[in-house]
Amino acid sequence: MRVEDFQAEIKRHKENIIRIERAIAKLPEGKLSHSVRNGRDVYRVLRDGKYVSVNRKKEKDYLDKLIVRSTLECRLRDEKKLLEIALSIEEKYKKLKLEYDEYLSKHLDFENVLKDYYNENDEKYENLLEPDAHIEPHFKENLKIRTIDGTCVRSKSECMIYNALHDNGFTFKYERATKASDKIYLSDFAIVHPKTKKLIIWEHLGMLDNPEYLRSSIEKIINYVKAGYIPGVNLIITYETKDKVLDSQEILKVIDLYLK
Q1: Assign residue 150 a region: left if phi > 0, alpha if psi is -120 to 50, beta otherwise?
Q2: Tally of structural domains, the chain
Q3: What is the mean pLDDT of each run of 10 residues along the chain (260 residues)?
Q4: d(CA 181, CA 223)
Q5: Of 96, 130, 146, at which residue does a domain stop?
Q6: Do the Cβ atoms of 187 and 176 come closer than 8 Å?
Q7: Which of 18, 127, 195, 229 could form an SS bridge with 224, CB 3.0 to 4.6 Å?
Q8: Is 3 exposed, middle or buried, given 0-12, 13-18 or 19+ CB atoms closer than 10 A?
Protein backbone atom coordinates (compact mmCIF):
# COMPACT_ATOMS: atom_id res chain seq x y z
CA MET A 1 0.00 0.00 0.00
CA ARG A 2 0.99 3.61 -0.50
CA VAL A 3 0.40 6.69 1.63
CA GLU A 4 -2.09 7.76 -1.05
CA ASP A 5 -4.16 4.64 -0.33
CA PHE A 6 -4.50 5.59 3.35
CA GLN A 7 -5.32 9.17 2.38
CA ALA A 8 -8.10 7.93 0.08
CA GLU A 9 -9.45 5.77 2.92
CA ILE A 10 -9.33 8.73 5.32
CA LYS A 11 -11.18 10.89 2.78
CA ARG A 12 -13.84 8.21 2.38
CA HIS A 13 -14.46 7.98 6.14
CA LYS A 14 -14.62 11.77 6.48
CA GLU A 15 -17.16 11.97 3.66
CA ASN A 16 -19.22 9.19 5.24
CA ILE A 17 -19.21 11.01 8.58
CA ILE A 18 -20.44 14.25 6.99
CA ARG A 19 -23.13 12.38 5.02
CA ILE A 20 -24.38 10.52 8.11
CA GLU A 21 -24.37 13.63 10.31
CA ARG A 22 -26.46 15.47 7.73
CA ALA A 23 -28.97 12.64 7.63
CA ILE A 24 -29.19 12.51 11.43
CA ALA A 25 -29.77 16.28 11.62
CA LYS A 26 -32.99 15.84 9.60
CA LEU A 27 -34.41 13.34 12.09
CA PRO A 28 -36.24 14.07 15.37
CA GLU A 29 -34.34 14.03 18.64
CA GLY A 30 -34.92 11.06 20.89
CA LYS A 31 -33.53 7.87 22.36
CA LEU A 32 -34.93 4.48 21.46
CA SER A 33 -34.83 1.15 23.28
CA HIS A 34 -35.84 -2.05 21.53
CA SER A 35 -36.20 -5.58 22.88
CA VAL A 36 -38.08 -8.78 22.11
CA ARG A 37 -40.37 -10.30 24.73
CA ASN A 38 -42.33 -13.50 24.17
CA GLY A 39 -41.64 -13.18 20.46
CA ARG A 40 -42.97 -9.62 20.24
CA ASP A 41 -41.04 -6.41 19.55
CA VAL A 42 -41.14 -3.94 22.44
CA TYR A 43 -40.29 -0.29 21.75
CA ARG A 44 -39.56 2.28 24.44
CA VAL A 45 -38.54 5.91 24.09
CA LEU A 46 -36.92 8.27 26.54
CA ARG A 47 -39.44 10.84 27.81
CA ASP A 48 -38.94 13.11 30.81
CA GLY A 49 -35.86 11.14 31.83
CA LYS A 50 -37.63 7.75 31.73
CA TYR A 51 -38.07 5.05 29.08
CA VAL A 52 -41.75 4.46 28.39
CA SER A 53 -43.39 1.91 26.11
CA VAL A 54 -44.96 3.17 22.88
CA ASN A 55 -47.36 1.58 20.42
CA ARG A 56 -45.66 0.96 17.08
CA LYS A 57 -48.88 1.24 15.13
CA LYS A 58 -49.98 4.53 16.72
CA GLU A 59 -46.56 6.22 16.49
CA LYS A 60 -45.14 4.43 13.45
CA ASP A 61 -43.72 7.50 11.68
CA TYR A 62 -41.99 8.78 14.82
CA LEU A 63 -40.66 5.33 15.75
CA ASP A 64 -39.40 4.67 12.21
CA LYS A 65 -37.41 7.89 12.30
CA LEU A 66 -35.96 7.01 15.72
CA ILE A 67 -34.99 3.57 14.38
CA VAL A 68 -33.18 5.23 11.49
CA ARG A 69 -31.55 7.72 13.87
CA SER A 70 -30.29 5.08 16.30
CA THR A 71 -28.97 2.94 13.42
CA LEU A 72 -27.17 5.88 11.82
CA GLU A 73 -25.73 6.93 15.19
CA CYS A 74 -24.28 3.43 15.52
CA ARG A 75 -22.81 3.68 12.02
CA LEU A 76 -21.44 7.14 12.84
CA ARG A 77 -19.60 5.81 15.88
CA ASP A 78 -18.03 3.08 13.74
CA GLU A 79 -16.98 5.54 11.03
CA LYS A 80 -15.27 7.75 13.63
CA LYS A 81 -13.41 4.75 15.05
CA LEU A 82 -12.30 3.69 11.56
CA LEU A 83 -11.18 7.24 10.77
CA GLU A 84 -9.14 7.36 13.96
CA ILE A 85 -7.46 4.05 13.07
CA ALA A 86 -6.77 5.15 9.47
CA LEU A 87 -5.21 8.42 10.66
CA SER A 88 -3.02 6.52 13.12
CA ILE A 89 -1.85 4.03 10.49
CA GLU A 90 -1.16 6.81 7.97
CA GLU A 91 1.07 8.57 10.48
CA LYS A 92 3.03 5.38 11.19
CA TYR A 93 3.22 4.47 7.50
CA LYS A 94 4.77 7.84 6.64
CA LYS A 95 7.65 7.07 9.01
CA LEU A 96 8.41 3.70 7.44
CA LYS A 97 11.35 3.42 5.08
CA LEU A 98 10.44 0.83 2.46
CA GLU A 99 13.11 -0.60 0.19
CA TYR A 100 11.18 -2.21 -2.68
CA ASP A 101 10.53 0.77 -5.01
CA GLU A 102 13.98 2.22 -4.40
CA TYR A 103 15.57 -1.18 -5.06
CA LEU A 104 13.78 -1.58 -8.41
CA SER A 105 14.64 1.98 -9.42
CA LYS A 106 18.34 1.11 -9.06
CA HIS A 107 17.98 -2.16 -10.99
CA LEU A 108 15.60 -1.41 -13.86
CA ASP A 109 15.90 -4.80 -15.57
CA PHE A 110 15.01 -6.72 -12.40
CA GLU A 111 11.27 -5.97 -12.64
CA ASN A 112 10.91 -7.70 -16.02
CA VAL A 113 12.66 -10.79 -14.69
CA LEU A 114 10.49 -10.73 -11.56
CA LYS A 115 7.25 -10.78 -13.60
CA ASP A 116 8.14 -14.17 -15.06
CA TYR A 117 8.23 -15.74 -11.59
CA TYR A 118 5.96 -13.65 -9.39
CA ASN A 119 2.80 -11.66 -10.03
CA GLU A 120 1.33 -10.22 -6.85
CA ASN A 121 -2.10 -9.88 -8.49
CA ASP A 122 -2.40 -13.62 -9.16
CA GLU A 123 -3.37 -14.53 -5.61
CA LYS A 124 -5.21 -11.29 -4.87
CA TYR A 125 -7.70 -11.81 -7.70
CA GLU A 126 -7.67 -15.60 -7.75
CA ASN A 127 -11.20 -15.76 -6.36
CA LEU A 128 -12.47 -13.63 -9.27
CA LEU A 129 -11.38 -16.40 -11.63
CA GLU A 130 -13.00 -19.16 -9.60
CA PRO A 131 -15.51 -21.07 -11.75
CA ASP A 132 -19.25 -20.48 -11.38
CA ALA A 133 -19.64 -24.27 -11.42
CA HIS A 134 -17.39 -27.31 -11.38
CA ILE A 135 -17.63 -29.22 -14.64
CA GLU A 136 -15.17 -31.36 -16.56
CA PRO A 137 -13.73 -29.99 -19.82
CA HIS A 138 -15.50 -31.31 -22.90
CA PHE A 139 -13.57 -33.49 -25.36
CA LYS A 140 -10.32 -33.53 -23.41
CA GLU A 141 -8.69 -35.37 -26.29
CA ASN A 142 -8.81 -32.10 -28.27
CA LEU A 143 -6.56 -30.34 -25.76
CA LYS A 144 -3.46 -31.01 -27.82
CA ILE A 145 -1.66 -27.71 -28.43
CA ARG A 146 0.81 -26.71 -25.74
CA THR A 147 1.16 -23.04 -24.75
CA ILE A 148 4.20 -21.15 -23.52
CA ASP A 149 3.69 -22.33 -19.92
CA GLY A 150 2.69 -25.89 -20.80
CA THR A 151 -1.10 -25.52 -20.67
CA CYS A 152 -2.85 -27.48 -23.41
CA VAL A 153 -5.47 -25.67 -25.51
CA ARG A 154 -7.68 -26.65 -28.45
CA SER A 155 -6.43 -24.58 -31.38
CA LYS A 156 -3.51 -22.59 -32.71
CA SER A 157 -5.54 -19.39 -32.38
CA GLU A 158 -6.28 -20.09 -28.69
CA CYS A 159 -2.59 -20.78 -28.22
CA MET A 160 -1.70 -17.37 -29.72
CA ILE A 161 -4.24 -15.61 -27.49
CA TYR A 162 -3.03 -17.51 -24.42
CA ASN A 163 0.61 -16.69 -25.08
CA ALA A 164 -0.18 -13.02 -25.72
CA LEU A 165 -2.05 -12.74 -22.42
CA HIS A 166 0.78 -14.54 -20.64
CA ASP A 167 3.50 -12.39 -22.21
CA ASN A 168 1.65 -9.21 -21.27
CA GLY A 169 1.39 -10.25 -17.63
CA PHE A 170 -2.38 -10.63 -17.36
CA THR A 171 -4.06 -12.60 -14.58
CA PHE A 172 -6.32 -15.04 -16.45
CA LYS A 173 -7.76 -18.54 -16.62
CA TYR A 174 -8.35 -20.82 -19.59
CA GLU A 175 -11.75 -22.51 -19.90
CA ARG A 176 -13.39 -21.06 -16.79
CA ALA A 177 -16.91 -22.36 -16.17
CA THR A 178 -19.15 -19.30 -16.53
CA LYS A 179 -22.89 -19.21 -15.79
CA ALA A 180 -24.82 -17.38 -18.48
CA SER A 181 -28.61 -17.45 -18.32
CA ASP A 182 -29.48 -21.10 -17.68
CA LYS A 183 -26.31 -22.43 -19.33
CA ILE A 184 -22.77 -23.12 -18.14
CA TYR A 185 -20.08 -22.32 -20.69
CA LEU A 186 -16.38 -23.07 -20.56
CA SER A 187 -15.29 -19.54 -21.47
CA ASP A 188 -12.16 -19.58 -23.61
CA PHE A 189 -10.46 -16.99 -21.40
CA ALA A 190 -11.48 -15.26 -18.17
CA ILE A 191 -9.27 -12.25 -17.51
CA VAL A 192 -8.89 -9.76 -14.65
CA HIS A 193 -8.77 -6.29 -16.21
CA PRO A 194 -5.53 -4.74 -14.90
CA LYS A 195 -7.10 -1.31 -14.27
CA THR A 196 -10.74 -1.92 -13.37
CA LYS A 197 -10.07 -5.29 -11.66
CA LYS A 198 -13.28 -6.55 -13.25
CA LEU A 199 -13.83 -9.94 -14.86
CA ILE A 200 -13.56 -9.94 -18.66
CA ILE A 201 -14.62 -12.91 -20.78
CA TRP A 202 -12.87 -13.54 -24.13
CA GLU A 203 -14.58 -15.94 -26.51
CA HIS A 204 -12.85 -16.91 -29.76
CA LEU A 205 -15.30 -18.27 -32.33
CA GLY A 206 -13.07 -20.26 -34.62
CA MET A 207 -15.45 -22.09 -36.98
CA LEU A 208 -18.11 -19.64 -38.12
CA ASP A 209 -18.27 -21.30 -41.55
CA ASN A 210 -19.99 -24.21 -39.83
CA PRO A 211 -23.78 -23.47 -39.68
CA GLU A 212 -24.36 -25.46 -36.49
CA TYR A 213 -21.35 -23.85 -34.80
CA LEU A 214 -22.62 -20.42 -35.91
CA ARG A 215 -26.08 -21.12 -34.47
CA SER A 216 -24.69 -22.25 -31.10
CA SER A 217 -22.29 -19.27 -31.02
CA ILE A 218 -25.17 -16.80 -31.50
CA GLU A 219 -27.11 -18.54 -28.73
CA LYS A 220 -24.05 -18.35 -26.47
CA ILE A 221 -23.60 -14.61 -27.06
CA ILE A 222 -27.31 -13.97 -26.36
CA ASN A 223 -27.02 -15.87 -23.07
CA TYR A 224 -23.86 -13.95 -22.14
CA VAL A 225 -25.69 -10.66 -22.71
CA LYS A 226 -28.62 -11.84 -20.56
CA ALA A 227 -26.10 -12.58 -17.79
CA GLY A 228 -24.57 -9.09 -18.03
CA TYR A 229 -21.59 -9.80 -20.26
CA ILE A 230 -21.78 -7.09 -22.90
CA PRO A 231 -19.67 -7.22 -26.10
CA GLY A 232 -17.11 -4.42 -26.06
CA VAL A 233 -17.52 -3.90 -22.31
CA ASN A 234 -16.77 -7.11 -20.41
CA LEU A 235 -17.08 -9.58 -23.27
CA ILE A 236 -14.46 -9.78 -26.02
CA ILE A 237 -15.38 -11.71 -29.17
CA THR A 238 -12.94 -12.66 -31.91
CA TYR A 239 -13.76 -14.97 -34.78
CA GLU A 240 -12.41 -16.88 -37.76
CA THR A 241 -13.64 -18.21 -41.06
CA LYS A 242 -11.79 -19.95 -43.89
CA ASP A 243 -11.22 -16.56 -45.52
CA LYS A 244 -10.49 -14.63 -42.33
CA VAL A 245 -7.82 -16.13 -40.07
CA LEU A 246 -6.83 -14.66 -36.70
CA ASP A 247 -3.22 -13.48 -36.49
CA SER A 248 -0.94 -12.26 -33.71
CA GLN A 249 -1.19 -8.61 -34.75
CA GLU A 250 -4.97 -8.66 -34.45
CA ILE A 251 -4.70 -10.25 -31.00
CA LEU A 252 -2.39 -7.49 -29.81
CA LYS A 253 -4.77 -4.84 -31.20
CA VAL A 254 -7.66 -6.43 -29.27
CA ILE A 255 -5.57 -6.46 -26.08
CA ASP A 256 -4.65 -2.78 -26.54
CA LEU A 257 -8.27 -1.85 -27.23
CA TYR A 258 -10.04 -3.73 -24.43
CA LEU A 259 -7.49 -4.63 -21.76
CA LYS A 260 -5.18 -1.64 -21.41
Answers
A1: left
A2: 2
A3: 72 92 91 86 85 85 89 92 86 71 77 65 64 82 92 95 94 93 92 89 93 93 92 93 92 93
A4: 5
A5: 96
A6: yes
A7: 229
A8: exposed
Residues of the domain holding 48: 3-96
Burial of 246 (0-12, 13-18, 19+ CB in 10 A): buried
Separation of alpha carbons 134 and 151, rounded Å: 19
- 8 Å CB contact between 220 and 207: no
